[in-house]
């Protein structure tokens, strides 16, 4: 079953194709173009393997390292999910406002496809942001929009600028889309190396740059002056504001009206505790958004996701209270981490704190020891960040539990 035979020597007339295709001179010529491992006509077996169909550049792709699902983690650690303190993925431990669960429970038409234009959600976002809904497009998380932008902008071989350490999805999606990544590492205080970015844009002519404010994993922000300098360059700037609510800064969503080369991304995952329902959104110049509409999957935001996001926006008081609790807890957590002899925490504008692991302690071992005690944190061991951990800000009781465990490890 399913064997494609192609002559070893390029003679279209002797190619036979099973699979219900009739062998003919016309179609065999088409299949000749493919260099598939095949069964030879002389009887030598050279079977087609599935990976021969995969695009070459994807064969070199390392898979994205996602966090373990809660249930898997629970089995592995031998603890109930509710007994695990999850400070490894910058989720919002307060979850969404109660209106969300009510709205999800009252879903009336889950069997009907969702609105491809997410009209209700975009209208609510327009009210929330003050930017007209024509500039707004929603997606299955900000993650989907990062990929969608790349699919619309990048030809294979095009270049993007990435400023590590940062969110690794930019690099990952660039690889999936066959683009090249030019890395301009951040300076030691995690600010952007603007002179180097300017140089690279002039020399390498990259198509776009991904900037994150606050940046994941260090929590630093990009000031107006730096952003404007980069916006003046001939490059598309994608500003990822996934954590902007925790920074005390105003979103730059409305800047897209003035800057034809700016896209601003945001999400409900952090601000509204909806990471599991996957809703993100972006503000785009009108000259760009038109093409994203054409290229996106028609039903990218599910009925449940749209209903949940709209319900969350109906309770801005809750979102504000939760944000204030997390910002307050960030300060308490930072002060406590500063007192741990083997950690050097960095000040953060986000809902996580990056710490250098010092005094000869091993960051990976620290993460593993904490996991055994039921506290999950993230550790880094790459070129830009060796021997660092990142701790998400949780509820006060999460901080207390973490500190108890850290004290045991001293
Ligand atoms: C900087 C940044 N952007 C985007 C995302 C993903 O957002 P979403 O959950 O909406 O896909 C994350 C998730 O951690 C992130 O850290």
Automatic annotation (TrEMBL):
GO terms for molecular function: histidinol-phosphate transaminase activity; pyridoxal phosphate binding. It is an enzyme of class 2 (transferase). Keywords: Amino-acid biosynthesis, Aminotransferase, Histidine biosynthesis, Pyridoxal phosphate, Transferase. Its cofactor is pyridoxal 5'-phosphate. CDD domains: AAT_like. It catalyses: L-histidinol phosphate + 2-oxoglutarate = 3-(imidazol-4-yl)-2-oxopropyl phosphate + L-glutamate. Its EC number is 2.6.1.9. Transmembrane segments: none annotated. This is histidinol-phosphate transaminase. It comes from Phoenix dactylifera (Date palm).
């Amino acid at each position: 079953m399913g064997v494609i035979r192609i002559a070893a020597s390029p003679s279209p007339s002797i190619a036979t194709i099973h699979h219900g295709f009739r062998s003919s001179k016309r179609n065999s010529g088409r299949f000749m173009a493919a260099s598939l491992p095949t069964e030879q006509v002389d009887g030598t077996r050279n079977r087609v393997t599935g990976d021969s169909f995969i695009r070459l550049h994807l064969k070199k792709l390392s898979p994205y390292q996602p966090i373990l699902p809660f249930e898997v983690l629970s089995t592995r650690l031998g603890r109930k999910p509710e007994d695990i303190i999850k400070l490894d993925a910058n989720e919002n431990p307060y979850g969404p406002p109660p209106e969300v669960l009510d709205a999800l429970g009252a879903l009336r038409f889950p069997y009907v496809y969702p609105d491809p234009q997410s009209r209700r959600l975009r209208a609510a976002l327009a009210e929330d942001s003050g930017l007209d809904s024509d500039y707004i497009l929603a997606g299955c998380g900000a993650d989907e929009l990062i990929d969608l932008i790349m699919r619309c902008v990048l030809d294979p071989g095009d270049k993007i600028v990435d400023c590590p350490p940062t969110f690794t999805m930019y690099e990952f999606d660039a690889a999936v889309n066959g683009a090249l990544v030019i890395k301009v590492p951040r300076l030691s205080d995690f600010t952007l190396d603007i002179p180097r970015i300017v140089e690279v844009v002039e020399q390498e002519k990259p198509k776009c740059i991904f900037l994150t404010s606050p940046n994941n994993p260090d929590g630093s922000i990009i000031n107006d002056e730096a952003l404007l300098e980069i916006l003046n360059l001939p490059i598309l700037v994608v500003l990822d504001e996934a954590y902007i609510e925790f920074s005390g800064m105003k979103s730059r969503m409305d800047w897209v009206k003035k800057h034809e080369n700016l896209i601003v991304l945001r999400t409900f995952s952090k601000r509204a505790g909806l990471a599991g329902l996957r809703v993100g959104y972006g503000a785009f110049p009108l000259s760009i958004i038109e093409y994203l509409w054409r290229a996106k999957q028609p039903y990218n935001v599910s009925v449940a996701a749209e209903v949940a996001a709209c319900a969350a926006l109906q309770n801005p008081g809750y979102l504000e209270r939760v944000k204030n609790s997390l910002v307050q807890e960030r300060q308490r957590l930072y002060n406590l981490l500063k007192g741990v002899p083997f950690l050097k925490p960095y000040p953060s504008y986000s809902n996580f704190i990056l710490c250098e692991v010092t005094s000869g302690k091993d960051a990976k071992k620290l993460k593993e020891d904490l996991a055994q005690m039921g506290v999950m944190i993230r550790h880094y061991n790459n070129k830009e960040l060796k021997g660092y951990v990142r701790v998400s800000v949780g509820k006060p009781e999460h901080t207390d539990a973490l500190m108890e465990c850290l004290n045991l490890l001293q």
